[in-house]
Amino acid sequence: MKLIFRPYSKTSFGLSLGLTVFYLSLLVIIPLSALFFKSATLGVSGLWEVFSENRIQQALYLSFGAGGVAAVINLFVGFLFAWVLVRYDFPGKKILDSLVDLPFTLPTAVAGIALTTIYAPNGFIGKYLTPYGIKIAYTPIGIVIALVFIGFPFVVRTVQPILEDLPKELEESAYCLGASRFQTFTKVILPELIPSLLAGTSMAFARGIGEYGSVVFISGNLPGKTEILPLLIVTKLEQYEYAKATGIAVLMLVLSFTIMFGINYLQNRASRRLG
Amino acid sequence: MKAKSNHSILRSIAKGIGALALISIFSFSAFAEDTLLNVSFDPTRELYEEINKKFVESWKKKSGKDLTIQQSHGGSGKQARAVIDGLEADVVTLALAYDIDSIVSNSGSVSKDWEKAFPNHSTPYYSTIVFLVRKGNPKAIKDWDDVVKPGIGVITPNPKTSGGARWNYLAAWGFAKKQYKTEEKAIEFVKNLYKNTSVLDTGARGSTTTFVQRGIGDVLLAWENEAELALSESRKANGGVAQFEVVYPSTSILAETPVAIVEKVAAKKGTTEVAKAYLDFLYTKEGQEIIAKHFFRPNDAAILKANVAKFPKLQLFDVRTIEGSWAAAHKKHFADGGLFDSIYGEAKK
């Protein structure tokens, strides 16, 4: 133990750890355990009833499915953004760079309304798609678009610094040793980036599952078709069924924690392999 | 080293608790006797702005005291939940009796017989559900029967999340029950209604946006005052010519929007008297006129008659006569596994 503390022992580890634990319990641990206690009032059979409800299962597939698809799209889109922002200089780069953060700062409801306005059948883009029978707003596609919007800064902002720190010499030596461009990319650059790509994608995924504000506007909220899990929580609250609402929340929490844990494991293994 | 760090954790926790205690002491001093908080639902925002202004004046005349009235608006159920969770409302003016009933059963801060505290089931104004259709009424929607015809796009919010949507649902249900007599036929009717929906917004205002701004659907089931508001907005935006028309069905529901004093909070804050005077004010001539101005139907027969152009006569039925009580209606239709769940489940399969 001592070995770990020593390098920073002059900077009062005790006080800062104390504050960290205190705030973490005040903001995260105590509220989350309250969640579990509240849902525990349902009992095992009550919880099972919540999970086996048809509407909840369908919303579960939709939330995790759309969240997953959006996360994969974000993986590529976010990577492309980071790549362009780091590797090239062009006029307006600073502005583009700051625009990436917009989904973080914008109230998500505003994003939802704006996206719905554009993609609704009479909207700016929607009206050109409707004649071909393509519907975006009020379908799962709309949900995916909203989730891509709110999620892509996560990938950009986690990959960007790693890409910036990548020494130029790595690529140069690969080139000198006769690697093609494609080989340099897949064998030299990509392995370095995989841990941060995974981290960013998993954050975008996590954010997507729980997203409410932007999705309720564009989804149309049809039970069994475009109804997301967070909406069901609100529905239960609206009926004063606090325990059932927290039951769904616990289900989401456990599932996302399991997935996050899995991704973290993969990420660790990926970075360890690099040594 | 380890012992020292443990000690620091305790010390820092103690510091944090001290800070919290300080904050809470400051917030206690915020109480004052001359403020009133009215927790209400969404469409009444403009109405209460005017009511409050007038009431503050008349209260000043009567008692010589200054009064500030604070307003809080949101979805009716959400507002009720905030009161249950401790939002210190002196009065609640909500969209359905069921929401006040649930404050009674979940927190007990409103007395059980609140409905008898003021005239007319404690409802100073009411509304009803009407249809908003596109200009010229291209689909010729005249009554409830036309709404359920195949191919008609219906916009209504989700009864699970919206108080207004529950009124829409019960209006259709009441019509079908009267028209077709049997329960099976009524279920069939409501099923057809929801077959025609392609968007279920979470609240009444959201549905209005979907219909008006997004141009989706042929008919919007809406509160009378919400429909009138959409009309006047559309007139403003299009140089005096509205893009919509209001259609009054042959019969609709009596949508009672009740009020109540939150006794426990009022007693604690010493505002019981002014809270009662405030709600009484809604029943006065002056109050009723403001209410009519904002498209809610006033109780006062004379004022209603004077505004007959605004409020065409139509047959209204009470939810109590079709389902007995709000609690019974809720349990039968909107609770989990209730009729709405089964209707929707099948309608979409």
From TrEMBL, chain A:
Keywords: Membrane, Sulfate transport, Transmembrane, Transmembrane helix, Transport. It comes from Leptospira andrefontaineae. The keyword Transferase does not apply. Residues 60-261 form the ABC transmembrane type-1 domain. The keyword Transmembrane applies. Its main location: membrane. GO terms for cellular component: plasma membrane. This is Sulfate transport system permease protein CysT. InterPro entries: CysT_permease, MetI-like, MetI-like_sf, Sulph_transpt2. It is a multi-pass membrane protein. It is found in: Cell membrane. Belongs to the binding-protein-dependent transport system permease family. CysTW subfamily. Part of the ABC transporter complex (TC 3.A.1.6.1) involved in sulfate/thiosulfate import. The chain crosses the membrane at residues 20-48, 60-84, 104-124, 136-156, 245-266. GO terms for molecular function: ABC-type sulfate transporter activity. The complex is composed of two ATP-binding proteins (CysA), two transmembrane proteins (CysT and CysW) and a solute-binding protein (CysP).
From TrEMBL, chain B:
One of its GO terms (cellular component) is periplasmic space. Keywords: Periplasm, Signal, Transport. GO terms for molecular function: molecular carrier activity; sulfur compound binding. This is Sulfate ABC transporter substrate-binding protein. InterPro entries: Sulphate/thiosulphate_BS (IPR034408), Thiosulph/SO4-bd (IPR005669). It is found in: Periplasm. Residues 1-32 form the signal peptide. Coiled coil: none annotated. It comes from Leptospira andrefontaineae. GO terms for biological process: sulfate transmembrane transport. Belongs to the prokaryotic sulfate-binding protein family. SUPFAM superfamilies: Periplasmic binding protein-like II (SSF53850). The keyword Signal applies. The keyword Signal applies.
